[in-house]
Amino acid sequence: MRFHRTTIATAIATFVSLTFAQSEGNTMLPGAAAAAAASSASTYSCDTNVCKLANGCVCASKNPPNGLSPSDTPQFVTVTFDDSIQPQLYKTAKRMLNVTNPNGCSGRGTWYVSMQYTDFSLVQQWYSSGNEIADHTFSHVGTPSDQEIMSCKEMLNTYGGVPNGKIQGFRAPFLNYTKETLNHLSKLGFLYDSSSSALQDDAYWPYTLDYGMANDCWTGICGAGQTKLPGLWEIPMYAVLDNISTPQLMDVYISGQPEDVTKWSLDTFNKHYNGGRQPFGIYVHPTHLTGYPGLPDPAPKLDGLVSLIKTLSEKPDVWFVTNQQLLQWMKNPVKASELGKQDYMRCEQPVIAKEICNGLDDDNNGNVDDGLLNSCNFGTTTFNTCFNCPSTAPTLDTPKPANTAQAGSAGFRYPLPNDCDTKWWDPIGNACLCTSTECQYKDTAVPVNRTAGGNGVASNGSGSSSDANSILNNQLENVFLITVALVATLFL
Ligand SMILES: [Zn+2]
């Protein structure tokens, strides 16, 4: 049995809107469900004989790129965080990513940052420790203007010290984007968008928009003559189906008890892992997972997620990556066995003889940038930064007001130049401490041997590869059997 696509799309529109309403306090695309019902879903078409990776073009597909077999393909997991970065939220995110990739490097994630309440010293710490910083607009608005997107990017660079060339991704607040949003991103030189939603039948690997959108087609965005933006990538967000087959996209933990959320998530993960190895995503608002006085304790939800992530990390071919790392792999797909050797997967910290304000603990005393941060206060707006405080609070129109300190005066911080990475830049000493192509780095990878049970898989010490895998497979398959019958009514 198969439902007519428009029927499913309408149902999806309604359910997904509900999920967004819970997660960000707003509904996505009001009236979209009615619009989808009124018009048939537009179609996506991409010719693989013309669209080739060698030319920077990738068609939407549920199979791994370049004909790679699923068994040779890394299983990527992308953990993403949305909205402001604040000290307690930062701790929550770090706790979720406290896992090790098969090459011994710590798991990485992507933060889509909006400006209000953001502490820019933490933006820098997130970036310097190997994670990705991406754009989520200045004011946290849907269908944003160029200025909303660019003011955010300018502040991430100016106060967070993230090189402009490393701010490559965007997610629309409330996931409320249109083809105009994608046009803005292309014009502004972004590498990718990650605002669309994917279900089982359109759980595509990331693809370029040379042939337009292949997700959210119920909005009419996929048809011929809609969005065609060669070279701009779309990284779909992969929905998890709950026990009544409702797609849950962000903040799945809001919709069920931790054990339910784990079951739903493992089921979707297993479909990807045993299917086309499409990436699996965990998309959260850390504010929901962080305790505040007077509100219900979110610790069980966070503990459940941490446990889920730990379970996934025990698979020998699972990698926790940023969306930029995922796209680096898409551009040059290598087998899972080769992934750990790729430059973009390494984890190295610069060796710097003294503490500089670079988001790292250079002198290894347990504190990052100790005593070096500027604190900028404007009443309701307060943030720390390694760079100059603005003389007034940044606004959408003026994201970089004049500095309080003048160039050459005491206390002036020198902005990050284009030819030095943040990790090496001393904004007080006005020096790039990497002066050659052979700067000294310290490898921070730790020994990992998942196939020998060395990563906590077989904590009973039995330790063989087959033991470890069978334990996990049993867990996954039990969940799969329970849920497949429910899912089947809608999708099989
Ligand atoms: Zn948001």
UniProtKB/TrEMBL annotation:
Q: Where is the NodB homology domain?
A: 74-190
The positions making up the signal sequence are: 1-21
At the top level, the lineage of the source is Eukaryota
- GO biological process: what's one of them? carbohydrate metabolic process
The record's annotation in Gene3D superfamilies points to:
Glycoside hydrolase/deacetylase (3.20.20.370)
Keyword vocabulary terms for this entry: Signal
GO molecular function terms here? hydrolase activity, acting on carbon-nitrogen (but not peptide) bonds
Q: Which CDD domains match?
A: CE4_CDA_like (cd10919)
User: What's the protein called, per UniProt?
Assistant: NodB homology domain-containing protein
Q: Which organism is it from?
A: Parasitella parasitica
The primary gene name is PARPA_13885.1 scaffold 47386
